[in-house]
Structures are given as C-alpha cells and as structure tokens.
Amino acid sequence: MRLIVVGGGIVGAACAYTASNLGAEVTLVDAGRDGQATAAGAGIICPWSEPARDPARYALACAAAREYPALLAELAGLGWPDVSYRQVGALLLPGSQALAEDAVQLLARRRAQTPEMGAVELLAGAQARRLFPPLGPVPVAVYIAGAARVDGRRVAAALTEAAVRLGAVVRPGSAELALGSGGPGAGRVAGVRADGELIEADAVIAATGAWTGSFLAPTGVSVAVTPERGQITHISLEPADTSRWPVILPGGTGHYLLAFDDSRVVAGATHEPGPGFDYRVTPAGLAEVLGEALALAPGLSAGRYLETRVGFRPVADRPLLGPVPGVAGLFVATGLGATGLTMGPYAGSLVARAALGEALAVDLTPFQLSG
Ligand SMILES: Cc1cc2nc3c(=O)[nH]c(=O)nc-3n(C[C@H](O)[C@H](O)[C@H](O)COP(=O)(O)OP(=O)(O)OC[C@H]3O[C@@H](n4cnc5c(N)ncnc54)[C@H](O)[C@@H]3O)c2cc1C
C-alpha cells in the first residue's frame, strides 16, 4: 500500500509513523508553511478540566491523553527516550473556595471514567505558590496530578524520524491533490503533485491543519476548518529549575502558563479567529499575553524575554477524521483546534489505520466529513 501523508505537523507525523509501523510505503510531504500550529503550541495535556460540551470530542481527547504514555514507550524502544513529555500536574485557579470545591466534585465524577487523571487535591494558595513560585496571591487551587506537558516540535520530530527509520520518505514541498479519472465527487485519489511533480499513491491523508480547506478544494467537498491565530511568549527564568513546575490554568480567559526543563516559562495565548493566515506578532497580541501572564504571576517580570511564536490552530466544530466522501482513497485528519498536541498522536494513528483498512478501537463516525 502506497500512502501519501500531506502535512508534517503532529497529526501528519503520527499518521506517517503509524502507517510505516504497519508496513505501508509512506511519503510525507510538507510545505513548511509559516505558522504551523505544532511548532507554536504550548503543549498542555489536561482534557479533564475542559467544559466537555461535545461528549464525542471529550471522549477522544481523554483517550488520547491515556494513550500518550504507550506511544512514548514505543518511541523510547525505537531510540527516542525523551520527547519532553512530563507529568507535572496542573493547578486550576477557580478564584474562590466554593468554585474550587465544585471543580473538585466535577473532576472526581469524571475520574471514575478516566483514572489517568490521577489524584485531585484542593490546595491553599501558599501551597500553590510553592509549586509555581512566580505566582501571585491566589485564594485556593485545585491540583490535578495526571496533567502533563509536551513540546510539540519534539514529539513531531521524533514521530517523523521514527517513520523514516521504518522506511518512510520525507519530501519537502507544497502538495496539490491529484484526482483520478472519475473527477470531483465520483473518482478516487491518484496521489499528489509536490511542487508540480506527480507522486502516485493508493491513499492520501490530508493532515494539512488550518490549510485543509484549500488542499481539499479540488474535491468539491466543503471543509469547515479555519485558522485561529495564537501568539504565545517564552520567558527565561534562568537559573531556576522549572522542570517540575505544574501547568497553571486560571480558567475563563484562554490564558495559561507552563514550564519546560531549561528554565523556560511559556505564557499563552491569544485566540484570534479574525486575521486569517496573517503570520505576525502584533503589539496587541504581545500586550495581551504578557499582561495576563504578569497579572497571574508577577514573579515572571524579572525574567528574560526569549521569543513569541505564532501558530494557526485548525479550528472546526469537531475534529474531522476519516474518509472524504466521494473520493475513494482520500482521508482527512484535522480540526483539532486548541487541543491538537493532546489529540494529534492518537487521532493521526486512528486515521492512518483507517486509510490502511485496519480495524479501529474507536468509532470515527462522529468525526466524519459530510459530503
Ligand atoms: C498558541 C497555541 C497554543 C496551543 N496550545 C496547545 C496546548 O497547550 N495543548 C494542545 O493539545 N494543543 C495546543 N495547541 C493546538 C495544537 O498546536 C494544534 O491543534 C496541532 O498542532 C495541530 O496539528 P496539525 O498537524 O493538525 O497542524 P499543523 O501543526 O499546523 O501542521 C499542518 C502542516 O501541514 C502543512 N501543509 C499545509 N498545506 C500543505 C500542502 N498543500 N502541502 C504540503 N504541506 C502542507 C504545513 O506546512 C504544516 O506543517 C496550540 C496551538 C497554538 C497555535
């Protein structure tokens, strides 16, 4: 089976890795677009504290969080022992004792289905500050032990390198869909043209993130995926050992803090649906991110500004995972929005399996594109 995966973010990398592992002949094509979401994403893995308005999406996100350690063990076995994943826990900051108690009750109910959430504890403000020293005064916090953080760049790179080790070929370039003789709506996929050169395949997966609408346009199937710009700032607190600091989730604003091993604190992020693919750090974005971060954690003000990253989250009503109707052999894997670093490896592996005709442990019907 010859499979082309278009898109080298975390989703495409996971598709390429899984399919190579299952014996497919894989070509991964990536255009290196500015604003790849994977390269900008914060990397928080904590689906259990989300509102869960969409039960199918929530269940997928929880399954993805549960599957992470197994994937990491596989990668370790192949020679990538540390891809930056660390179960550092998360601190929710509900703002009052009553709200914190509500949050603990909700999480305790959810934990029955998702024990990987780990212990949930009510902490006094001073205890929270001991765990994350730059934090300002907070009345109370809720600690979720199973929450983790990961560097999306490193996970995607490890998955891609592991795929190559298993035989995949990486082809830099911008891909256009090549349809077979049946034409839009009635045909099958022939492959892609990468910078004009035809590469034939039995199946193609569009893991093209926020760019999926234009990639699939030749099929005539409308794909409601839009870019949501996120600006996110990195600050160094050298020489502090930040490697075990928990993720800080104040709730309500879409802003948060997390830390990595190299004295690095990441403050995110804007959620801007308006600017399309305008790849820029804006004064307004920077002011918003730094203003929220310093209000929450005044101790960050003494740090050193490192950089601000910009990424386009692929936003859809729901994840879009599975076959594209009317075009045999064509599949889509996108729409993971603000939780694609959590869901990407799992979602990509599911779509790769579907493309190879393998049985799936999960029903993808809720995530299928309508014709
Ligand atoms: C600021 C920010 C913070 C985030 N924080 C988190 C978080 O804390 N936790 C979490 O779980 N998620 C988070 N996310 C979301 C997550 O980053 C994304 O959902 C995820 O990375 C999407 O991955 P993807 O592979 O679908 O898309 P992308 O990573 O955008 O990759 C798409 C790839 O497709 C390629 N491509 C597109 N069109 C073509 C073409 N025609 N030919 C060839 N290649 C093409 C592009 O070059 C790109 O490399 C965050 C995102 C942002 C922006």
Descriptive tags:
single chain; 371 residues; 30% helix
3D structure, described in words:
The protein has 371 residues and is α/β, with parallel strands linked by helices. The protein contains 9 helices and 19 strands. The chain has helices at 10-21, 37-40, 55-78, 97-111, 125-131, 152-165, 212-216, 283-296, 340-355, and strands at 2-6, 25-30, 44-45, 90-92, 120-124, 140-144, 148-149, 169-172, 175-179, 189-194, 197-200, 203-206, 226-236, 247-249, 256-259, 264-268, 304-315, 320-323, 330-334. A hairpin with a 4-residue loop joins β15 (256-259) and β16 (264-268). α1 (10-21) packs parallel to α6 (152-165) and α3 (55-78) packs across α9 (340-355). The protein starts with a strand and ends in a 16-residue tail after the last helix. The mean pLDDT is 96. The structure holds flavin-adenine dinucleotide. Flavin-adenine dinucleotide (FAD) is lined by residues 6-12, 29-33, 36-38, 40-44, 152, 174-175, 207-211, 215, 230, 232, 268-269, 311, 313-314, 334, 336-342, 344.
